[in-house]
Amino acid sequence: MAFWDSWFAPKCDSCGTKIVGQPPIRHEGGSICPTCHEAALAAEAKRKEEADARRAAEEAARARLKEQRRFGTDPRNER
What we know:
Oligomer: single chain
Strand content: 5-15%
Order of helices and strands: HEEH
Radius of gyration: 26 Å
Shape: rod-shaped
Number of domains: 1
Helix content: 40-55%
Distance between the termini: 86 Å
């Protein structure tokens, strides 16, 4: 039955190869092979890391801006 299993094996939605030997992995609404799944997880981790770095930079910039503000003074009078 190995021939028929490989003949009717499902195709990976990402790369198009037939998934033989293991069940396809459901990821974001599609069936993908383990190799593409690892690549997708790595890409998600990279996007999350970049978003965290961007968020940290924004928080640091916001904190610097708050340090420069003084409550109750008119900035037009400062020179």
